[in-house]
Specification:
The chain is of the alpha/beta class. The chain has a domain of 189 residues: Alpha-Beta Barrel (TIM Barrel). Helix content is 41%, strand content 15%. Helix 2 crosses helix 3 and helix 7 packs across helix 8. The radius of gyration is 18 Å and the shape is globular. The structure holds NADPH dihydro-nicotinamide-adenine-dinucleotide phosphate (NDP). NADPH dihydro-nicotinamide-adenine-dinucleotide phosphate (NDP) binds next to helix 9.
Length: 275
């Protein structure tokens, strides 16, 4: 299977499709990770707060896929924000993963009212310079947060991982990403199934013989975003990977674009501060 890669603004390349590990039980994570990698996924999205980094690392090793062919992401949790505590948190993540480096390290949420995300970003820059994270980025950053870290450090994040699904398409933020050469990575890409029966999705599924989930993942791919669906079922993992043998037409893409309601599944980054 040939799958697409995106070029990041630091010159590195990243698989466009990956799989996510949020809410995957720690005891099942090694198996889900190994299964996904053996099926052909090459990007695994984890986070310290998911509590399953040890399984993420075990699954990578158990898969037999060479380390340099797996793109590994983890994230610094809110309670670790600040310069020194971020350095410590990243080392703790690497220890749990049992890896010498991650491919991508993200700030999980800005938590703007705490005022620590610029210092946290400076720590990520250092971790990149030291080779502990090959690329660095952010998650759930709105335009003001992006402008601030770039303005204060001159370093543009490679990725902003944000909620995107047919009901929450974030056109303004994605236009800013395009301008700044930041890759958009879509979390909760299936939108809790809320658009599976929507006429534009159902019609494209009927025409292509694909499932609604596959149509939505293909829509993400054709918008140019990276996408990281989660499934703990081997059949679900396989289905979500099987999206490179068909294409949505321009009218189908345009019809799905009309489903945007600005309706979130997850928390609002402007106010989410959970420690
Ligand atoms: P997804 O949009 O990937 O949906 C996951 C749900 O959809 C599960 O219930 C899964 O069930 C089901 N599902 C998966 N594939 C199919 C399919 N083909 N057909 C029908 N149902 C399907 O949601 P997530 O919220 O997990 O987001 C994906 C990833 O994004 C996370 O795992 C995490 O890595 C990341 N994320 C990041 C956040 C951030 O703040 N940076 C926040 C939230 C998520 P089943 O397992 O039974 O298949």
């Amino acid at each position: 299977m040939t799958q697409p890669f995106l070029t990041l603004n630091d010159g590195r390349s990243m698989p466009q499709l990956g799989f996510g590990l949020w809410q995957v039980p720690a005891a099942a994570t090694a198996n889900v990770t190994m299964t996904a990698l053996r099926l052909g996924y090459r990007l695994v999205d984890g986070a310290a707060i998911y509590g399953n980094e040890a399984g993420q690392g075990h699954g990578i090793r158990a898969s037999g896929v060479p380390r340099d062919q797996v793109f590994v992401t983890t994230k610094v949790w809110n309670s670790a924000q600040g310069y020194d505590s971020t350095l410590r948190a990243a080392e703790a993540s690497l220890k749990r993963l049992a890896l010498a480096h991650v491919d991508l390290l993200l700030i999980h949420w800005p938590c703007a009212s705490r005022g620590l995300y610029v210092d946290t970003w400076r720590a990520l820059v250092r971790l990149r310079d030291e080779g502990r994270a090959l690329s660095i980025g952010v998650s759930n950053f709105n335009a003001p947060h992006l402008h601030r870290i770039i303005g204060e450090t001159g370093v543009v994040p490679a990725v902003n991982q944000i909620e995107v699904n047919p009901r929450l398409q974030q056109p303004g933020l994605r236009a800013l990403h395009a301008e700044l050469e930041i890759v958009t990575q879509s979390w909760t890409p299936l939108g809790q199934g809320r658009s599976f029966a929507a006429p534009p999705v159902a019609a494209a599924a009927a025409r292509t013989g694909k499932s609604p989930a596959q149509v939505i993942l293909r829509w993400h791919i054709q918008t140019g975003a990276s996408v990281i669906p989660r499934s703990t079922r081997p059949a679900g993992l396989a289905e979500n990977l099987d999206i490179f043998d068909f294409a949505l037409s321009e009218p189908e893409m345009a019809a799905i674009a009309t489903l945007d309601e600005g309706a979130r599944c997850g928390p609002d980054p402007a106010t989410f501060e959970m420690a």
